[in-house]
Amino acid sequence: QVKSCHLSAALLGEDSEISQEQLYELLKYAALGKCHNAAQPSWCRIYHQSHLAGVVVVFLHEMSQLHFYRFYLQFKHLRRVFRHRFTLAPSANFPVSLYGEGTNLKPQNTPQGLTSTSSESITKNSDLQCDPIIQRYGEKKQGLTSYTLTLEEQKKNDYPIEGSPGCKGYISTECDQQRTDSSPLFGLDCEMCLTAKGNEVTRVSLVDARGRCLLNELVKPESTVVNYRTRFSGITRKMLLPVKTRLSDIQTRLKKMLPHDAVLVGHSLNSDLQALEMIHPSVIDTSLLFARSEGRRFKLKFLAKAVLGKEIQCEQKLGHDPTEDARAALELAQFFIEQGPTKVAELNLEMLLTAEKLAEVSQNKAVLQPQGCGFQEQLKELPPLSKPCFLDCLQVTGQKPLLLGRQGLDSSGLCQSNLSTSNKQILQRALEDVPLSKFSIIQFSLGPEYLASHLHAGLHEKVRSKLTDMLTIYAGPFEENFCMKSVKKEFMRCGPIQSLTVVTETFQPYVCIQYELLEAAQLAVECLNGAEVAGSCIKVQRPVTAAMLDCNVLIKELELDVENEGVIYVAGLKKSLTETDLQEEFSHLKDLETLFLPKDLQSGKHRNCCFLKFQKTQSAVDALEAINGWTMKGSQLRSRNALAPGHLWKWIWQMNHSNGKQGKHIFYEKMEQLSDSEQDLRKKVKKLDQHIKKLYRSLQNNTLCVVLFPGVN
């Protein structure tokens, strides 16, 4: 859930299961943006990632989907607030696979007995004050005019200046200095060859603020080429042979293309303008913008990778691509302007550069013969490179990953030993520390006494049994020689049936019907109770068991679940209808967003029902009224509000088909009291839900919050 922000994702049917890699994609992009090759997740989209205040992962140790639905009523806040719910595909070692084996977060004991980790030692506010970027530009975000070079800075860095002795014969772009924060940016880059005259331009590229290439031209130098510098320039003798464009042609074209308030962006742009023999008053030089101490400069290739997550100037390519370089410089300037100096300083580029160099050394250490043991020790200190973890990246970039959890839960890979810590203490620490961190993992647990394997097996059986009861209805009484075919046909109009059997223990015949979907069973109770079926006025009811006494409450809560907002269930469809047919039939319904046609998970065939999701809740209400009693292709439709999201009905199907007793049902069950341990467990879960509520309410707006039920495997 993104608090007061936008995250869009598919919510119906088969899209409701995601893999650990997809979750990793989401967390990595949310935490790092475009840095470190992070990209938008393939399965959902975060809008305005740069506006995210932070990422919080709540890790419910060894709890699974089983716990969520067993204690569905107790998880009141969790299910009402978190709008996006997905089944996570099982993983052999969930924390390790998600956070990487190379995680360098070493938990430290605190006086309260908590396990907590924060990279405050890496970057503190006081450290930021010493950063060259903060010293030069301050902490506040500013417009682009604050980052253009002054006349003095241009002189100091060998830029061509109007009237200076070395610029005789240079052409002015004739742009004025009346730039504003909304002036257009243009990326410029040139490739040069060494001639008898010196460095002469042989290729020019210009891109606009959207990265579109406006100019990419080869240029014939005036003097004889002494060295083509093909390795860097990509220019060969063969490439220049047919070229007729001269420097004067390029100068004329650039003058025409650049508006009067244009701001040129480039990396060490002075050398490009010197080679072009042109003077331009408004420039942003990314080699100076990303300031370093003692006059040093970052290379464009490093900045592109560290800041933008882009690989440029690859060794496989022949020379540099000036369009690629111009675009990279432009995007770097845009990133700096949009994010501001503080965000850029928090990237901790110096540490990233050091880490990159050490990694290169580490990769080559097999062929190197280092002298002295100091170097060997340094190599031993290097973090593992085989499985990079984005929490490592966060530490290196100066962001503050935070880890809080109960100790003694070694199997999680997150915590160390001390059983005295409570969830309440963890919450208290989280309320204090999470606002200071960009990425937080908060681990809660029910405690080892509630996570024993025999208790887990008991929970599984209770959930399976209750779901089976909710999917099952009894109908009757019927006449002695009633027509089973008529009964089946009538009840199938409510949805797909898993099994239908005759109850022989009663004086008059009854039928026991087990549906595949909760909506189908509920429709049967609502539509057919008191109806005349196969010549008899029948009663339709669910089994009477201790577990079913709160069934109506549970049905109502499922109907109000945020995942079911604007979603309706439609039954009675002919199986011959395709998804395209249904799209046409329902096309007149207002605000229809998605149509999902469930399939049999074994045969792959379509069922005789579908789900419709509407953009507005009122449109779903109107559609319900329109569809009920509606005849489609000779078949009368029945409809109601959805009860079970896609991940739930798929899970129900798997539970039923993994159990050999499907289709059989015991009508009477021994009425036994809940055990003390389960009563305690309900209280624990309710308290846990309140902790999540308090934590969520304390988060800043635009915080991505993910709650994980990782299970035991």
From TrEMBL:
InterPro entries: Nucleotide-bd_a/b_plait_sf, RBD_domain_sf, REX1-like_exo, REXO1/3/4-like, Ribonucl_H, RNaseH-like_sf, RNaseH_sf, RRM_dom
Region (Disordered) residue spans: 105-124
Keyword Lyase attributed: no
Domain RRM: from-to ranges: 471-545, 566-644
Annotated keywords: Exonuclease, Hydrolase, Nuclease, RNA-binding
Matches recorded under Pfam families: RNase_T, RRM_1
Gene Ontology MF: a single term: exonuclease activity
SMART domains assigned to the protein according to its UniProt record, in alphabetical order: EXOIII, RRM
PROSITE patterns given in the database record: RRM
CDD domains from the UniProt entry: REX1_like
Gene Ontology terms: cellular component: nucleus
PANTHER family: RNA EXONUCLEASE 5, RNA EXONUCLEASE REXO1 / RECO3 FAMILY MEMBER-RELATED
The protein's name: REXO5 exonuclease
Organism encoding this protein: Calcarius ornatus
Lineage: Eukaryota, Metazoa, Chordata, Craniata, Vertebrata
